[in-house]
Amino acid sequence: MSRVLYFDCFSGLSGDMALGALLDAGLPLADLRQALGSLALGDAHVRARKVLRAGISATQFTVHELAHGHEHGHDSVQHGQDPTQHGQDPTQHGQSPTQHGQNPAQHGRHPAERGQIAVHHRHDPHRSLPEIFQLIDRAMLSAPARDRAKAMFERLAAAEATIHQMPVDQVHLHEVGAIDSIIDIVGTAFAMEWVGAERIVCSPLNVGGGMVRTAHGLLPVPAPATLALLADAPVYGGGVQKELVTPTGALIATTYASSFGPIPAMTIERVGYGAGERDDVFTPNVLRVLVGEESGIEARPEAVSGPNERVTIVECEIDDMNPQIFGVAMEKLYAAGALEVFYIPVQMKKNRPGTLLTVIVPPDRRAAIADVIFRETTTIGLRHHDVQRECLARECVSVDTPLGAIRFKISRRDGRVVTATPEFDDCARIAAARQLSVRDVQRIAIQSYIP
Q1: How far apart are CA 411 and CA 421, in angstroms?
Q2: How many other C-beta atoms are found inside a 10 Å radius of the C-beta of residue 76?
Q3: Which of 69, 198, 240, 360 is a Cys-bridge partner for 340, taking CB atoms 3.0 to 4.6 Å apart?
Q4: Which residues pair with 58 in a beta bridge?
Q5: pTM, whole model, 2 decimals?
Q6: What own/partner pairs with CB < 8 Å and gap ≥ 24 does 433-442 have?
Q7: pLDDT tens digits, residue range 267-291?
Q8: Percent of the chain predicted with pLDDT > 90
Q9: Which candidate, 251, 151, 270, 152, places its Cα nearest to that of 202?
């Protein structure tokens, strides 16, 4: 079994909601603070507190910065305190950000990070990509986590450059280059390593609707940069006329998720709720994360794939390796998270017969797959590229037959059953026990299946 994390984005996704959900699921705030404390972001500091969103308890993650003698943010927590350590819940005292004449739209986060329309007021400079990279290099992160955070900002800069028709090296990031968003992205890179999930799945994203005011003016929801970052991710608009998916949220979803779709078959170990700042009456303004172990046959990545997902193809040719090693390499590649591994005979230079190794893998597992290939084979180089693949929705069900229970792999398209195949291992086991042929067991099993 492998560890899986599921982002349930029924109310959108933003950077602070992602960190709030992971903190709610058990990420120690002290560890997160230690990782972020080395960013050298001046007076910025982070907090977490328990709040209620439409009656659901959730953790709200906030970033505060003293600027010109005033603190960004609008909560009532004193400097340096962590309300979650004392069991405080501001909602229990009837407090809300809009009481006492306060308007959440006037302070703190980029309005998109709050999931509401507001004018953005900030004293932060507009940072360039090299400036942000310098900050990330100061964080107490592993090298892969730093590389992941940098890659996220590179994607954002490329999207902005395309939208505004300017070179990437001239792009200055506005809201997402601010302190709180840098903390969100770097913090998420740290938090995802803490979770240690081999596979990450994301639901279709509720992007909201309406208009949002940004540093570039009044823009439609989703904002152009957010829309570009979402790429082929499945999205939909809900009844809430607010920006629910932020640029940071789009980066997180499309960087980490290897597939989009329903909750995979899993045994749930942890559940976390991350709160947005807005408290809707009917729909909880929260991001939910589920963490656990994939279960059963359908836990294999190819058995729960959504209809459309991004995958990475890794390839290399080998002509000087003991053939016995190919079997070992395949086992190690599957253990490292490969979705598919196959070998094809090829004719190489100098007319030598060789073998083409092809591995299909979730994008976030490419580095691990490369490590296995270089360690277990004789190749000195490989190539990789991302593609989209389309799969039937699949599940595993148990079917009662005259010979006993046999598992079936069921595939569907638009809700209609396309194929129903008895699990070969079950058929082989029963055939051996009852002294029947595997073909006879398969026939009896298929006759017993009722759609």
Answers
A1: 9
A2: 15
A3: 360
A4: 51
A5: 0.57
A6: 434/403, 436/403, 441/403, 441/406
A7: 999 999 999 988 887 789 999 999 9
A8: 44
A9: 251
